[in-house]
Amino acid sequence: MDKPFRTISEQVRLLEARGVTTDEATPAILLREGYYAVVNGYGKAFLDEDATARAGDDRYRAGTRFADIHHLFRFDRELRALTFRAIMSVEGTLRSVLSHTFCEHHRSPEAYYNRHCYTTAKHYLRGPKQYEGDLEWMISTFRHHAEGHAADERQQGGRDGTNVRIAWYRKRYDAIPLWVLCSDLTFGNLRYFFALMREQEQRAVCARMAEVCGTTADGLPIEPASMLRDMETLSELRNDCAHVERIYDARFGEEARPYPQMVDVLAAFLAADDEAWLRASVTELVSRFAGTSEAVATVLAAAGF
Questions:
Q1: Which residues, 6+ apart, have CB-to-CB distance to 212 below 8 Å?
Q2: Which stretch, 124-128, 153-157, 182-186, has highest mean pLDDT?
Q3: 230 CA to centre of own chain
Q4: Are 68 and 147 in contact (CB under 8 A)?
Q5: Is the confidence at residue 159, as pLDDT, over 60?
Q6: Of 10, 17, 24, 175, which one is least surrounded by beta carbons within 10 A?
C-alpha cells in the first residue's frame, strides 16, 4: 500500500488525532520544515509506546505539543552545526599534521604514490586482509586528486577553486605537494592515510596531536590504534552531520558512544580554545532548549545531556 499524500491541514488533523497539541504556528512550520523531517525524525521520543501498540499507529504521551517536537528538531539541527564546526577544525589540524609528518619522512615530491613509503601488511592497523585493497585505493585517491582534478580544470573553465589550485601547481612544478592534495581529502580519506603510515610516523603524528591539542585524559601518550579508532568514530559523526542525520541520541563507533561522550573524543583533537568553545556552546544549547518545556528536558536528560 502506498503512503498517501496529505495537505498541511490534513497533517495538522493527523497530529491532533494522535494526541499532539498543535497551535497557530504549526501549519507554517510543517510547510517550511516538512512533516517527515520533524515528526518522523523526532516524534518518537514523545510516543506513548503502550497506546501506540494498542492503536497500531503512533500515539503520543498526554500533554505532548507539536512545539516540543519542533524544539527537539531545532536542538539537533543546532547541535549538528556546532559539531560540524568543531570537526572542520579537527580536519584542518589532521591535514596539516599528517602531511607534514609524511613529507618529513619521505622527501620525494610524489612519495605518496610509492607503496614502499607505507607500512606493511603485517603491521597494518586495519588488518593484513585489508591492506592491499586499502593501499591501492589510497594511492588511486591521491592520483585522482592530483591528475584528475587538473584535467577537470580544463573542462570546467577554472570555475572550481580546488581544480584551479591544483592546476596552478601542475603548471609551475613537476609534482603536486602532499599538503596541497590533503586539502581535498575527506575525513574518511585521512583516517585511511593515517592507518597506512609507518608506525614511526604514526607515533610522530600522535605526539604532535598531543602537543597541539592536549594529551589524553590520563596523561599517557596517544597510541596509534586508539587514535585510529577515534578517527573512525569521528568520521561517522562527521558524515551524520553532513547528511543531516539525527545525532542527539545516536550511537557512534564500535563502542556505541552517545553524543556527550563524543565531545570528549573531539576534545582530544581540538586546541584548548576550540574545546572550551565547544563545551560551552553545547552546555548553553542544552540549557536553552531544556528550558522550553519539561518534556524536552526529559528527552535530553534521557539522551545523556
A1: 93, 97, 271
A2: 124-128
A3: 12
A4: no
A5: no
A6: 24
Q: Among residues 261, 195, 257, 184, which one has the least CA distance to residue 226? A: 195
- Rounded Cα–Cα distance for residues 265 and 275 (Å): 10
Find out whether 86 and 270 touch, Cβ atoms under 8 Å: yes
pLDDT reported for residue 154: 45
Q: Given the C-alpha cell 570555475, which residue does it identify?
A: 159
pLDDT for 3:
82
Rounded to two decimals, the pTM is 0.90
